[in-house]
Amino acid sequence: MEPAAGFFESWFLWRDPLAVAIIAAALCAFVGVYIVMKRIVFVSAALSQMSGVGVAIAFYLASVAGVDPHHAPLYLNPLWYALGLAAAGAALFSLNLNRRRLAGETVVGLGYLIAAASVIMILNSPRVGQEAHEVNDLLYGNAVAVPPEQLKIMSGTAILIGLVHGIFGKEFVFTTYDAEMARTLGVRTRSWNLLLFLTFAAAISVSTRAIGALPVFAFMVIPPAAGLLLGQRLWQVFAISVVVAVLGATLGYYASWHWSLPTGASMVVVTALFLLPGIARLRMKGGS
User: Fold this and answer.
1) Given phi > 0 = left and psi -120 to 50 = alpha, else beta, which region is 261?
2) The domain spanning residue 53 has which CATH number?
3) How many other β-carbons are positioned within 10 Å of the β-carbon of residue 124?
């Protein structure tokens, strides 16, 4: 049997995981354009780690309460903890990026380090025990299977964030491109920056729960980078970024199935290949 035939015959196994991966990739790539344009790439990494801490805390509290974390009550749902930690980080980073006393990159670095250390401590806690490998999968990506409700959550989050950006897209672009001019014209840049960062937090927390922190970080950086290398206008950058993310997620998932590779890492590597046309175009421009 041909590998492709076996893949398509098993569609009922990968249909939901692939759909979740595609939606998460497209969403992360879209908001990632702002992150790359703002030159705050490691904010997404820090928020991913903070989201992972939220998931780990939820697993820990469920184990303390003697509750199955997969069937925990609403107040122990890992999604809420992931969203809460990511939102807190987003609020912190949005308010500190332009402070001179403590550089924004320092605040982001501190957030990343503290979150990473916290995850390691929780994973090595006896309380977490057999659930540790599942939290680890969330950090490094293992989107082989997803719960049935994950597709609904991922789709709903994407629609909500899409509506926010559809309504306030002009304000987000203005404050991203020229914050100083926006402030001069009386635009409340802090408020718009906070709202924009909260959409980052929502996208990251939900996507991390679905496909893992590593692919989330990659989809927020690689597709936007490809879009900026290949696109001439802003709408082209967004479009190319989303298309690259969707192709990278799809082909990467197939590669992981075909060669029995880690799913998250496969999607990252395949997506990175789409940088090659942009790099080649850049070199051609430099040589002309």
Assistant:
1) beta
2) 1.10.3470.10
3) 9
CA angle 206–212–213, rounded 5-degree value: 90
Fill in the DSSP letter of residue 185: T
What token pair was written down for 157? Answer: 């989050």
Token pair listed for 54 = 């939220």
Cβ partners under 8 Å of residue 132, min gap 6: 123, 124
- DSSP assignment of 186-197 equals T--HHHHHHHHH
Which residues are CB-contacts of 21 (< 8 A; sequence separation ≥ 6)?
A: 143, 210, 211, 215, 249, 253, 263, 267
Q: How many CB atoms lie within 10 A of CB 88?
A: 15
Helix (H) or strand (E) holding 81: helix 78-96
φ/ψ bin of 221: left (φ > 0), alpha (ψ from -120 to 50), beta (otherwise):
alpha
How many CB atoms within 10 Å of residue 146?
19
Question: How many domains does the chain contain in total?
Answer: 1
pLDDT at 211: 87
Tokens linked to 65: 């309460």
Identity of the amino acid at 28:
C
Report the distance separating Cα 52 and Cα 50, nearest Å.
5
Distance from C-alpha of 252 to C-alpha of 5, rounded to nearest angstrom: 17
Q: What is the pLDDT of residue 1?
A: 42
| CA nearest neighbour of 279 among 238, 225, 243, 220 | 225
pLDDT along the chain (288 residues), means of 10: 63 85 97 94 90 85 78 81 93 70 78 89 72 62 69 95 96 84 79 94 90 90 96 95 98 90 91 94 72
Structure tokens at 52: 């992972």
Give me the domain span that covers residue 250. Answer: 3-287
Torsion of CA 44, 49, 55, 61, to 10 degrees: -140
| Residue that is written with structure tokens 């809460």 in the block | 84
